[in-house]
Structure to design on (1644 residues):
């Protein structure tokens, strides 16, 4: 069979290629099996000791065989085959060799939540915990049904730095604090509480690190070398991973395809040992690192890091990559061992980690004693799960423009024209990494439940050059009272392996929308997809009444959308990413990893972008009005940095205090719904601003958020958001990567800095050079191995144009050339 | 239904969108129908008068309705619906609303030839004529069977300037002389001889002009503005179109999506009237221009050339675009007419041209009198057609490396490992724009006919990150005597809408090949696909015995490939394109349309590239050796330019002599097969070199070629190639676009300049400034209309990085950044 599928199906391709007979999952029989007298079956021993005892039983060949994702197990010892590659990005999705769902009946579906980018827009950490809890419950049900494994390669927590990134949809957004907070709640939901005797499932924080490019302009993820300053690394790329490792103590990490500053991440002991395991204390024996699928092969080619395949597997294993998605380990570790490039210690360490992880999951213990082993098919797609999938979609949808048409009153109309490439979306609503859901309620389905006539036409899509279909969409519009266009982008233009090239609405889609808007009828436009389209022409068009963004809303996405449009669920989502002008793509190459603006870059994210966003990060309108008042906080106060640190240190009991986590203050912000709506959610966002520390200064930094639910109109007891700030909230990162508290004038604004609802000011005092509250490991702390030369011609894999340092002249002149029509 | 197909399926998408009920084609009944007394039915009148009489009968509404590709006809007058959009790039392919083939039985298939890029590699004009004749015969059969139309939107004759171009596969290659010669033979085969009473079919030379980018880095074909100097335009972009118009007098042209120097081509009267119709004399009443699908819509958006949709259709109609693929004409011409932007003359001119074309096709004449109307299903897929499809594939395949393993002796082996993503290729072999063939003989099928054991494994492909499939390919290799890898690229990475990003073999594919090459067994690698991959690592690898390139070889591609490998059909194809080093993509952006090298460009094509090609244009090895001797030619002679022109002018009878076409000399080159093979084809290529005229000078220019068939070993009467040179062969193009003969020393070398077999030198004398033999129209000869402003924000459609003027700094530094592993 030929692999003639779209580039978007890379994961599926890999799944095909790696398909083996493994279609059911089982557990070893520790009661009566060959291992019953081995320590691994002794529930009273430590996971480390149990795993070590098992590994000690294995022959060399058995060890090598079990270093890849498709693990054959050890039949001799009654250890069944195990598939480490399971996915559950926003619901149980797939397990090699395919989806774990059956064709019908039990285990034929699982709840499909919105893509993380839309759940990120909810800014609701409790929601994330609830969603993750449902996912892990359903994952356990599939495991108990013999349909999937116990570890899942989720979440994707790389910050969504560039709107072109094809996998930005898999992330909660662009802000590192937001991601760090989100991911802690997610992992708690997936793995269970840290003190629990068993892990619910093992989550995998990926892709560590600096991974946010697919194939932009000849720069392929498999070979890209991300040039990242220590300042940007600590300030931007690392916080979600630090939260995974240090705070959430997640069970697994995945190193990425790309190199960082010259070293492929899976072969970088400084990254995997010095930073991850030592600096962040991610050092439990059951915590393991897996290489992204074929990333270890890529260390050989195209990275050309190792001179031989054996050297490549030796470099990665010794660096701390314990498991190989792929077969390079089982294939080439034997040769590496023979050549003396690895030894028993290297091999046993990796296997002990992965087997200890299975121990922590209860893999070797009897089912009866484990609550998670009692979960079954009846726990999948519960009423609660269904409601939660709908709630998550409702909460994420963002209102960007509204002239008063919304909430749409159904009393006044008898017909709706529902037009666009997403109007009848089903699988589209799931984005990528999806399984089979119980249902997919499209926008068309939802509209048809409203009791009005719905005139549907597909119209044109972002990747369709043709507006011309003899006008079904115009016919639909002509006979309807209201026109709703549900369009935008989908995985045809943003997906794994496929970065976007443009941020503008395509000519045909914009042509269709503006033509529809010229009918003199109310028009609502909904942009779907993760990457923002520059909606300037829609904002400027007075004939377009309302604009919403709805991401990839999952199994009940259509219903959620119409619940928001009609006011059943008033919108309160906030943009988790910046909506840049279309020209942004010609101002900075994707390969430029730097955040701060420079002569060759307008800067990245709301913190550093020096242009005017079409819609800023955090933006989101409501159907009602809100006011905010800070009822408790440090307004007007002054704090000595030395005092803050001393009081914090004394409150920490560990020998290595985490000063950045020390509480600084809690703001209490009373939020009042001033009408006209009787009730609406409201997301309280707190941004830190100020010119403390060295220039340049970020425009603002999100330091806290809380979603308030059902804020009632003029309630006598106002809803209060509690926004906790830590010393880390106040810190800046210096060029070494150290976090520093500087004296100066600080302010916290509530809501987006462009339209603040409240403001608090305070002062920190101390020495001008500031105080380091977290020292970042230096590159020479730990070592970098490897640096071989592969026998391909020098420069063979040189990448394309527009890479990081090449942006300067290419930009300004590029704009001139592409100016058209004048 | 959602348009969730790959971007490669753009044409198919458009086909869906435009689908109407039209599924059968018919002819008007001029004997008894309503028009029987109208002049259109009078076979003795001129096509122009007949068409004008019909147009005169039409109401305004009927006229507007019939300006789009899906023409409803005029039921009132007995004119049936007609679909102008038919495709036959390398065999009858599709006709809206889909493929014209039935599910089974009659008309269920048509012959599928190789993609033009492989037919171009044959350098065999007679072959091209023969192939085109079969295609037009089969097209007539489908037309007579009511399954397709009479005009076809083929050939794609834009020079294949950049190896990244996704549609380069549709063209014969990079050299303008080659394309001009090829296309004349093709059109004669498609349309019949120019003096014939009826056209066989109408061909359409596309895409006029400067179209050779799909979506590189934010520069989309629908909005790209190609900046082309007059010198490059005349020297490089125009020759194939000039040959179409002036020499072949093709029936139709298609203007392109892009703009050239600020003006969308479909809205450019200088291009469509001054150059095409006036300068080239393409002025017959039955010759029409169609806009590429939705290109007229694109004049409005995203080109923003016209301020309103009505202005867009007016600008294009008045510029000379007669037919609209799409519906902008039928939809917006009425408004344009009402607003006075067009008048009856504009509208009637367009319709008269398209209807006159149908007259020339015999559409209105009785079937009995027309030989083409007698063609039927029995004329499809004849033995001749089958043999020709095989022959075309055999002739195109190029041998790039051979250590003596090939031709492969089957006597010495008992088993072959056949490995790779193309090893069992079926539809892949057709590339794009294909129909349903009678069969698809894959390489695997062909190998299985050889009487040896074939061990097949798919292995990895160019877009598959995973090498790891537990080693089926290594198992196959281990138990075989010879390893043949058939891999490379396909429409997953190069296709309509999808330009390539890299020229290197992917890491996994290269890894697999080099691993297979370490087995100590003979290895043959076949690169499939149009765009060349930099094969430097394969050339340098002594364990790889042979390397071939086989493009997209069509229905019998597998058989052709093994015929070449085993010596049944010794290879004689020549690369029709340069194989650049992989780093080429980082040295010049696709958007740079200039040919000559500069500070920011290494130059383009074998004429101007200042680096060292991996394999040069024209390269191709044989299994035997050849010598060449020039037996007649101008060696050592001197010619006065004035004399050459005077003698030529006097031999031309027209009032506007085409001096560039005047014969200069014919070289006779005797080709001797010196063994060891008893017989082999040989392509005689003649390149002009010399430093005449202004610097910089091209390295060489192809001026003639001829394929000799079956050159026998040491034949007593050697095969003689006759290589005709014209004055145009000697001319240079100046900055105004004028063709000039300069005094100086000239040489013609036979075979690639890197390894010439023979050389002839001569001198031209005259004034230093030279003599213009073809004056190019100036931009102010004719006018450019339009230049409106569309109501979208300024710069909204600004394109991406790396556009033409932006290449400078981006290149050198980009290389450094992407250097890996050190």
């Amino acid at each position: 069979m030929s692999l003639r599928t779209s580039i978007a199906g890379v994961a599926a391709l890999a799944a095909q290629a790696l398909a083996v007979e493994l279609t059911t999952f089982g557990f070893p029989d520790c009661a009566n099996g060959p291992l019953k007298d081995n320590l691994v079956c002794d529930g009273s021993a430590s996971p480390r000791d149990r795993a070590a005892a098992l590994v000690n039983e294995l022959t060399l060949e058995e060890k090598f065989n079990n270093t890849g994702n498709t693990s054959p197990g050890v039949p001799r010892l009654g250890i069944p085959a195990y598939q480490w590659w399971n996915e559950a990005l926003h619901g149980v999705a797939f397990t090699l060799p395919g989806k774990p769902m059956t064709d019908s009946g039990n285990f034929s579906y699982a709840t499909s939540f919105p893509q993380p980018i839309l759940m990120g827009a909810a800014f609701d950490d409790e929601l994330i915990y609830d969603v993750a809890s449902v996912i892990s419950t359903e994952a356990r049900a599939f495991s108990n049904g013999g349909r999937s494994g116990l570890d899942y390669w989720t979440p994707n927590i790389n910050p969504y730095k560039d709107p072109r990134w094809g996998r930005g949809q898999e992330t909660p957004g662009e802000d590192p604090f937001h991601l760090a907070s989100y991911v802690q709640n997610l992992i708690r939901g997936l793995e269970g509480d840290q003190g629990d005797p068993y892990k619910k499932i093992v989550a995998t924080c990926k892709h560590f690190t600096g991974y946010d490019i697919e194939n932009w302009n000849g720069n392929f993820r498999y070979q890209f070398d991300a040039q990242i300053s220590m300042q940007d690394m600590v300030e931007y790329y690392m916080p979600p991973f630090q939260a995974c490792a240090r705070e959430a103590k997640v069970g697994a990490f995945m190193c990425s395809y790309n190199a960082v500053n010259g070293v492929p991440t899976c072969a970088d002991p400084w990254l995997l040992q010095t930073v991850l395991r030592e600096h962040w204390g991610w050092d439990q024996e059951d915590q393991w690192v897996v290489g992204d699928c074929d990333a270890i092969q890529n260390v050989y080619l195209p990275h050309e890091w190792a001179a031989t395949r054996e050297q490549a597997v030796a470099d990665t294993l010794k660096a701390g990559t314990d498991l190989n998605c792929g077969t390079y380990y089982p294939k080439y570790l034997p040769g590496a061992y023979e050549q003396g490039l690895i030894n028993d210690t290297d091999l046993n360490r990796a296997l002990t980690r992965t087997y200890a992880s299975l121990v922590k999951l209860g893999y070797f213990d009897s089912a009866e004693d484990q609550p998670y082993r009692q979960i079954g098919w009846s726990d999948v797609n519960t009423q609660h799960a269904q409601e939660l999938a709908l709630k998550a979609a409702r909460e994420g949808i963002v209102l960007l423009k509204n002239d008063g048409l919304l909430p749409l009153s159904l009393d006044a109309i008898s017909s709706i024209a529902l037009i666009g490439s997403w109007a009848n979306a089903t699988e589209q609503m799931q984005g990528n990494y999806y399984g089979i859901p119980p249902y997919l309620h499209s926008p068309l389905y939802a509209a048809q439940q409203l009791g009005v006539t719905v005139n549907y036409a597909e119209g044109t899509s972002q990747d369709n050059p043709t507006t011309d279909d003899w006008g079904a969409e115009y016919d639909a519009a002509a006979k309807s009272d209201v026109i709703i266009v549900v369009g935008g982008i989908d995985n045809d233009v943003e997906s794994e392996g496929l970065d976007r090239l443009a941020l503008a609405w395509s000519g045909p889609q914009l042509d269709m929308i503006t033509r529809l808007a010229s009918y003199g009828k109310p028009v609502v436009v909904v942009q779907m997809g993760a990457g923002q389209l520059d909606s300037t022409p829609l904002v400027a068009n007075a004939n377009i009444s309302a604009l919403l963004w709805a991401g990839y809303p999952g199994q009940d996405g259509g219903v959620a959308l119409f619940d928001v449009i009609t006011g059943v669920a008033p919108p309160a989502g906030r943009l988790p990413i910046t909506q840049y002008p279309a020209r942004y793509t010609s101002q900075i190459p994707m390969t430029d990893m730097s955040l701060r603006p420079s002569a060759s870059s307008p800067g990245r994210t709301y913190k550093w972008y020096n242009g005017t966003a079409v819609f800023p990060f955090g933006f989101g309108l409501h159907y009602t009005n809100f006011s905010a008042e800070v009822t408790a906080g440090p307004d007007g106060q002054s704090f000595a940095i030395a005092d803050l640190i001393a009081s914090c240190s004394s409150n920490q009991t560990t020998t290595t205090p985490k000063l950045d986590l020390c509480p600084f203050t809690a703001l209490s912000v009373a939020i009042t719904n001033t009408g006209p709506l009787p009730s609406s959610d409201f997301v309280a966002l707190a941004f830190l601003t100020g010119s403390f520390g060295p220039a340049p200064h970020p425009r603002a930094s999100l330091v806290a958020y809380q979603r308030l639910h059902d804020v009632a109109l003029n309630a006598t007891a106002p809803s209060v958001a509690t926004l906790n700030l830590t010393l880390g909230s106040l810190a800046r990162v210096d060029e070494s990567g150290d976090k520093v508290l500087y004296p100066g004038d600080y302010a916290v604004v509530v809501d987006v800095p462009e339209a603040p609802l409240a403001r608090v000011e305070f002062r920190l005092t101390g020495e001008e050079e500031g105080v380091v509250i977290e020292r970042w490991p230096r590159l020479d702390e730990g070592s970098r191995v490897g640096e071989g030369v592969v026998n391909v011609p020098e420069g063979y894999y040189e990448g394309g144009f527009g890479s990081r340092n090449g942006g300067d002249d290419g930009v300004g002149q590029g704009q001139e050339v592409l100016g058209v029509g004048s």
User: Anything to note?
Assistant: Residues 649 and 655 of chain B are 10 Å apart (CA to CA). Chain B has three domains: 82-278+289-340+369-379, 386-576, 626-774. Chain B touches chain A through 124 residues (CB under 8 Å). Residues 125-144 of chain B form the longest helix (20 residues).
